Amino acid sequence: MAQLIGGIEGGSTNSHVVIMDTKGNIIGAARGPGSNHFQLGIAACCTRIVELTDLAKKDAGLGTDTCLKALGLGLSGCETEESKKQIHDQLKNDYPRLADNIVIGSDADGSVATTSNEGAAVCISGTGSNTLVINPDGSRAQCGGWGHMLGDEGSAYNIAYLAIKYCFDDKDDFEKAPFPIDRVWDLIQQHFEIETQPDLLSHFYSTFDKAAIASLCKKLAVLAKTGDRLAQAIFHQAGTSLAKGIAAVYKKAAPELTERQGGLHVLCVGSVWNSWDLLLPGFVSYVKEKSSISKLSLMRLTVDPGVGAAYMAADKLGLHIERDYSKNYDVFYSYCRV
């Protein structure tokens, strides 16, 4: 059988898996729920990885007992060597037919690998947020990625949180929101099916579900596009936060990355980037007025996110996959300081 390499991009809410041959063709693919081990636990995370891989094997016409040559895992929450080792060891011990070799990195690692194996940057803004640059020498700098308790600025969760916090502070007469809260509060009530502020407490404490709270973001984007000034201000703030993260890692990016054609290439991953028109004013204002960025290119993927995780595994193990990075992304925004 031809050498087959799998890749999984696992976020907090969604996961994508592909199986590729050495020609770079995707022969099988599948999608499923999130695979963040902090949310699921190590055992459940491993079970989900196997279930997703089995779905992709079936899509490729393979038996689930087919052992892949390698499997790359780019998983949300896998920033430490300890967590990587725990997942690796449990998969190898409990599912020996999954793959001969397993390579694990964060979801940001997998995303960067989609665009280059010589360094690049990624800014993730989905349920959570994280910004990372990997230099050609392998050194790296990260800003964010610490979860909703310590970070996630510019993410869908943070956008939803800000909307709720503005409304609570305004209704409490603690601090007036910068614009009227009426339409945003109506939207919050509808989304969570509540009437009063206390009704919302269970959603943040006893039955906390980060993804469910973050899903309010999509509705806030619709509201912002109808002209609601508070919703627009929240997305302006999110755009500023994403620019801050990129500006932070830009300072630590190698000259080979910042001085290339188009400046630093930043892959933008996650559903919040679908609202770029709402993020743009805050993003551009910060880059122009408060950052040291000279040139910048923002890119979006044109291939399945799991492709980067497969590349990551192949490069780590010295395996061959044919690839043309330029076909994996489009540039949707360019900046050059004059």
TrEMBL record:
Domain of life: Eukaryota
Top enzyme class: transferase
Short name of one Pfam family: BcrAD_BadFG
Protein name as annotated: N-acetyl-D-glucosamine kinase
Domain ATPase BadF/BadG/BcrA/BcrD type: 7-291
Enzyme Commission numbers on file: 2.7.1.59
Entry similarity comment: Belongs to the eukaryotic-type N-acetylglucosamine kinase family.
Transmembrane domains' residue ranges: none
InterPro entries tied to this protein: ATPase_BadF, ATPase_NBD, NAGK-like
Molecular functions (GO terms): N-acetylglucosamine kinase activity
